[in-house]
Fold this protein.
Amino acid sequence: MPCFFPSLIVGILLASVASAQSTFFLIDKAVDYSQTDTSTTAFNASIGHSFIAQVADQSGTYNAGNPASAPSVDDNTTTWNLAYNSGRSAWYYESTGHADQATLDATYADTNYDFNFNGSSATVAVSNNLYSNVPVASMNTGSWSSGTFMVNASDALTISSNTFSTNYLDNLSRIEIRVDGNGNSFSQSANNGNSGDSQSLNLNAFDLTSGQTYRVEIGFTRFDGTATMITGTDTIGSFTTITTFDLQAVPEPSSWATIAGVLALGCVGGSRRRSRVRA
């Protein structure tokens, strides 16, 4: 699942809390959409509704071999084992591809989830179905073409989200816009505070490389109540709604003119050579 929001949530919390609080337990229920033009979004069935369980820490103590026994999470009926994910530097479990919320909830209900980790336990409460309205992006320049957004690499680009009117709440909401591709990443987020119910990301001219395609994600995460603080740990329940689309950077108009001119010269040269051969 190309969903970076759970790991970003944990990363920001790790950076913002006291050093005594080193271990974080996260349950996130997510739904993914795709955007194909100015206002059209569609449920992304290939990812669908997802359930994510994650354990992360800022101490650097834990890795693929520590603890020796894999952590687990359960809902008092079913137990799921987490595996270490080196890319996220966390113990991780994910289930994707659920066709709708009811299907997801049938296996992963809104309830209390109990983590068992290195001899300790923590409970994460998940309830209320706090999904937002679907994220929709708007851009200050460029245009849509066959489901891909096209923009001149020479143009400064602003990507803005719509307003999140459903389940937005100051201090318990997070909005993120991210652009990834060609080895680069650009992002802007509201850090779970009184930052407003929408977000924008500004890219400078030539931040994007002509001819490259980038992946854009806009996501809204709503935390389920106030995180429960326990000694040395933090438990986090959340609901995330994500929209993705492809963005292609194209050459500026003057570049197209230069390319066309070079091609034209090549055609003329080829014609002259053919004329000499016939002569």
Observations:
- The chain has three helices and 19 strands.
- The two ends are 64 Å apart (CA to CA).
